[in-house]
Write a structure and sequence with these properties.
2 helices, mainly alpha
Amino acid sequence: MPARHRSSPVVLLIRWGVPALLVLGGVVLLIMSGGHLSGVQDNAQESNVFVSTSLDRDSVLSAAGVGLIVMAAIVVLLGWLLRLNASERGDRDKEDAAREHLRRTGHWPDEE
């Protein structure tokens, strides 16, 4: 496993600070709405998509709160995927160098 290097404060702020602020904002909105979704219908007949339903303040706040929390999860997962891709880049470079060595010498570098 490769040695881990320390991230700069700006990278840490973006990696963990932005999602934390998004989650905090989402929780605040959910608390402000009381976790209330008044536009949700229990009866399938009443939830016809062609019938316009009015949205109240609590429904909009709770939907926005959930949206912010989902955005925080997306930021964390995209950051993880980018770090995973960057760590695999070195492995690909080593593999390419080993293949070049195999092409020149006829044997794999470990087999010398």
